[in-house]
Amino acid sequence: MNQFSRSELLLGAEAMDKLDKARVAIFGVGGVGGYVVEALVRCGISRFDIIDDDKVCLTNLNRQIIATRKTIGRYKVEVMRDRILEINPKAEVVMHQCFFTKETADQFDFSIYDYVVDAIDTVSGKIELVLRCQEQNVPIISCMGAGNKLDPTRFEVADIYKTSVCPLAKVMRKELSARGVKKLKVVYSKEPAMKPKEETSNSCKRNCICPPGTDRKCTDKRQIPGSVSFLPSVAGLIIAGEVIKDIAGV
Length: 250
Known about the structure:
Rossmann fold, seven-stranded mixed β-sheet, alpha/beta
């Protein structure tokens, strides 16, 4: 018996061996990405690359699994690494404390990954991730818009070209088509986005408490989306399920 015995009862020993040997890169370990990592490590993935440049902020407490009063102000990749190792001390974790862009993409050797998870916010970053994975024939799953929504039951897994309603998915369809990308597995929601009820008292822009030295502070962002605990977590768990099933071949 071991800590993954209950998973093995469903997946089998051969699948568990595949999970143990797989190397997965998770770009963005916030609301969605944090839950992706959580589910992957608890299911037997033991080799991780985690990529994020942000620090845990007070406003992350409502939805991010790594956010607690004790972790505020710490880099997310460091907190996520510690959590992974607390669950599985034998895991291998490579931290990349950076913001993924076309300019920083050359820091990564995508050929070493068995799977890539896109849980970042910027369209340009998402497109670059897809293109890099396509070059190396690496499987990738991408999360579309999860902000300003309240119904976790509306999430679906689909090819990007079969999506609808989601504004981010619409932009991605256009941009990827223009670049000759034929397919992309995504998790998205058809729920129409709500308009944030932003007021002076709850605005991150006016009351930013990001630690000194934090890049891309809330005051620099054009829009701060609303979010709740049960929305990005569900998206992350759905993504993790797809990664596990694809790697394990079940």
